[in-house]
Amino acid sequence: MRIQFVASAILITAFFSACKPQPEKEKQSIPEPVMSQVNHVEWSKNAIIYEVNIRQYSPEGTFRAVEKDLPRLKELGVDILWLMPVFPISEMNRKATPSILIEEIKDPAERKKYLGSYYASSDYLSVNPEYGTLEDFKSLVDKIHELGMYVILDIAINHTGWDHPWVKTHPDYYMRINPDSIPWNPVWMKEHPEYFKKLKKLKMTYPIHPTEYDWWDTAELNFDNDDLRKEFIKIFTYWLKEFDVDGYRCDVAHGVPMDFWEQLRPELDKVKPVFMLAEAEGPEYHRTAFDMSYDWKLHHIFNDIAKNRKDAYAIAEHFQWVDSVYPGNSLLMQFTSNHDENSWAGTEFERMGDGARTFAVLAATLPDMMLVYNGQESAFNERLKFFVKDTINWDAYSYTDFYKKLDAIKENNKALASGKDGGKLDVLSVAADSNVFAFIRQAGEDRVLVICNLGDEPVNYTLRSDRKIGKLQELFTGTTTAFKRKTTVALDPWEYCVYE
After folding, report:
1. Can you tell me whether residue 375 is helix, strand or coil?
2. How far apart are CA 462 and CA 457, in angstroms?
3. b/e map 397-431, b = 16+ CB within 10 Å
4. What is the distance of C-alpha 426 from the center of its chain?
5. Rounded mean pLDDT of the chain?
6. Partner of 161 for a Cys bridge, out of 122, 193, 359, 362, CB 3.0 to 4.6 A?
């Protein structure tokens, strides 16, 4: 279990007074928790993951430019680099904007500006020439390993771009269109008639199904085809064997049958121990296939708290739910931004306002692994354009010290390890503390106490606990506090305190 509540008399009175005693028969047998069968690699246990958008990372937008910056990322405390897709991008039906295909732009000079979606791959065995060569990519991976870091590749396999050779050589790999059928999402099509027109146009040329939603730049693959499955197993193992990558971030993992992921994972582990991240949410991804999935629910709770739509205690309730449905030792990825959120939903400052850093503290100290999106360490507050070149403005790296401290405590304090190796989440605040979330995690002699004001008014929070806490040092100020059974902490709006 990840979460337990401090059982002091005060907390029991405050939290459980309205609860009815459970019938005796419900107490008699408590089943053993289901455990994930995935063996997490040792280097993932106290890791920070960092997402690299190669196109937007530097003015050059190349592997070599990222390689030059690796020492800075190592110093920041990065352990795992997630590289957004490195594969060539299809030119046919390439997107210029969310609703316009490049073919609709008549001016050749204007068309050249649009580089397409990273996820419309035309070849899984090569790299985007805009980023460099295979030799450049191998050099990047080797340098990452030389600095003691690891690398996972981002790959989308529920669809390909329309230029992929399989469209012509293996049309049986794709979902097929019945020319007389109505699109499978008529409500959505009614709301977006402009996309329906594009679908009709594609139907005239191809018997292959475009991917759902508005991804007309991709063609949907059919995993009922065993030969396609075998081909993807070869592709996944190719990058492990030839370039020594350490795993994958699997885009739209929920769009691929679970039994394929369960078929794939053992084949990869035969080559080398890998780390697998699913862009998905749910306990089923953790049983045998993936190490980690997204904690989208907690991310949305963060956004809702920032907008005063939920209170701080929603975090405690979330982890109660996690414990009730996820296999033990599952890893969840916590984040305040990523490439999708930044481009489509807004920066962390747009969504979370003055609480942006406070929620980053929670992402680092709650179970399990924190994601940093490139640019967050420079307090980057712009939405990166998705289909065109839009370089990050690195400015003065003004949040570097903040993330260094979070990365260091995550790296060095065993209580913050991921999964079963980390300390349980002992929630100290109660539902009545609507703007304060406080908790302790402890593993062995390592202990972390976190107190956050998740509101825009100052509060005096009285921490009450039967456990002996003792003297702890605050991570960001260096001040030492002797915690007793009853200690009051004054918190400014959105203030965070991390003691160890």
Report:
1. coil
2. 16
3. eebbebbebbbebbeebbbbbbbbbbbbbbbbbbe
4. 24
5. 89
6. 122
Residue 368, preceding peptide bond in cis (omega within 30° of 0): yes
Q: Which amino acid, residue 422?
A: G
pTM for the predicted model, two decimal places: 0.90
The string of pLDDT tens digits covering residues 336-347 is 999 999 999 999
Tens digits of residue pLDDT in 349-374 = 999 999 999 999 999 999 999 999 99
Q: How confident is the model at residue 206 (pLDDT cuts 50, 70, 90)?
A: low
Find where tokens 């991976």 sit. 141
Of the CA atoms within 13 Å of residue 20, those in its CB half-sphere come to 4
**Among 16-25, 206-215, 254-263, the least confident range:** 16-25
Residue 58 is predicted with a pLDDT of: 98
Q: Which of 106, 223, 111, 114 is nearest to 159 (CA)?
A: 223
Identify the structural domains of the chain with CATH numbers, from first to last.
Answer: 3-16+425-499 (2.60.40.1180), 42-419 (3.20.20.80)
Residue owning tokens 């600095």: 147
Contacts of 365 (CB under 8 A, 6+ apart): 406, 409, 410, 416, 441, 448, 450, 498
Q: State the sign of the Cα–Cα–Cα–Cα dihedral 35, 40, 46, 47.
A: negative
CA nearest to 217, candidates 109, 130, 389, 89 = 89
For 93-122, what is each residue's pLDDT tens digit?
Answer: 899 988 788 888 999 999 999 999 999 999
> Which residues have C-beta within 8 Å of that of residue 98, sequence separation ≥ 6?
214, 386
Give percent helix, percent strand, percent coil of the chain, each to the nearest 5: 35, 20, 40
- What kind and span of H or E run contains 146? helix 134-146
Question: Six-digit token pair at 307?
Answer: 């907008």
Q: Is 191 exposed, middle or buried (0-12, 13-18, 19+ CB in 10 A)?
A: exposed
